[in-house]
Write a structure and sequence with these properties.
This protein is α/β, with parallel strands linked by helices and 355 residues long. Strand 12, helix 9 and strand 13 form a beta-alpha-beta unit. The longest helix is centred in the middle third of the chain and has 14 residues.
Length: 355
């Protein structure tokens, strides 16, 4: 039997035991977790039903693990290897992967398997498809609890910046300064943004963004509509790019209000409820403002994890400031998810060290 922390149904979570785990095929691997982290996406899935009803499904899609079983055709990994398991584990032979959109291999968002339509990593064992294509070796000098930030937070935040096609010297606004938003700031800063405007309401997170990730201006949305504040700060010009890492159904429209004509709005925010996205007609310049809206699920796979891991290894990126709560022990997974839900003071991201 395998013990894990699961979504029992929409609105209900708990510990369960199961005797089912996907068989380890010739290209696959089975791992035990060394470090895991909960995600806001888990909350959308569990408590909002963002992807529909799920029953007795192990949660979690951020893990560093140790291989305990490996398929006969796996070339680059062996039992005992410590590995990063990204949140997105595509099927690399799918035609969508060959088109450059592996995140959607064999269906929309289907590269996202863990805790979507397959048991996640909050369990004593978890399965990884296409081990050579999806796992990455844990680099020397990088701890499991640091590396687990790469699985989703770092890659998603950087993807948000990449999708915005930020050029050196451009001005950028980042909506939401949670862990993904902070990594979006870091990505924008690395790509050469001259000014980064962080939109949030928690001063602590803004200070972390300023101290570590290149934030130059803080816009508190409780002080008034943030598009108006952005326009005032930029002499009514607006910013070149907007990165969305939080918000709701009106946020994309609000982002359009504060970008220049020809600008890009890049969204990685998981919209877990509601029916329609609202974009005011005039904010989009009656449809003719050359304002591009992009929404993207982060890429996954080994190559991307290895690239991002090198940023930690070379100290070009420090993820420790976003890991505000470190817990020890497999049984602390439940507490870590509760933290994401209850948001204690000065929380950015909890992580659980299991080994």
């Amino acid at each position: 039997m395998i013990k894990g922390f699961a979504m029992l149904k929409i609105g209900s979570v708990g510990w369960i035991e199961k005797d089912s785990i996907t068989p380890c095929g010739p290209l696959d691997a089975i791992c035990r977790p060394l470090a895991v982290a909960p995600c806001t996406s888990d909350l959308h899935t569990c408590y909002e039903g963002g992807i529909g009803e799920r029953h007795n499904m192990f949660l979690g899609h951020e893990a560093v693990g140790e291989i305990i079983e490996v398929g006969s055709l796996v070339k680059d990994f062996k039992i005992g290897d410590k590995v990063i398991a990204p949140a997105i584990t595509p099927d690399w032979n799918a035609t969508e992967s060959q088109r450059g959109f592996a995140q959607h291999s064999n269906g929309a968002l289907s590269g996202w398997k863990f805790s979507n339509f397959k048991d996640g990593v909050f369990a004593e064992k978890f399965h990884v498809n296409d081990a050579d294509g999806n796992l990455a070796h844990l680099p020397k000098g990088v701890s499991p609890i640091e590396a687990v930030m790469l699985c989703d937070m770092v890659t998603t935040g950087f993807h948000c910046a990449e999708n915005a096609e930020i050029k050196p010297g451009e001005t950028v606004a980042v909506i939401g300064l949670g862990p993904v938003g902070l990594m979006a700031c870091a990505g924008a800063n690395a790509m050469g943004a001259s000014e980064i405007y962080g939109i949030d309401c928690i001063d602590f997170r803004a200070n972390v963004a300023k101290d570590y990730y290149g934030l130059t201006h803080y816009v508190n949305f409780t002080d008034g509509p943030f598009p108006k504040q952005i326009l005032e700060l930029t002499n009514n010009r607006g910013v070149d790019k907007v990165l969305i890492a939080g918000g709701g159904l009106t946020t994309i429209g609000e982002a359009c209000e504060c970008i220049v004509n020809g600008g890009i709005v890049s969204n990685v925010n998981y919209l877990g409820s509601g029916e329609s996205i609202t974009i005011p007609r005039l904010a989009w310049n009656v449809g003719m403002g050359h304002k591009t809206i992009k929404g993207g699920l982060t890429p996954g796979g080994r190559y991307r994890m290895e690239k991002l891991a090198r940023l930690l290894q070379t100290k070009k990126l420090d993820v420790n400031p976003i890991i505000t709560h470190k817990l020890d022990g497999f049984d602390k997974i439940e507490e870590s998810l509760a933290m994401m839900k209850d948001k204690p003071k000065n929380l950015i991201k909890p992580a659980v060290n299991i080994n």
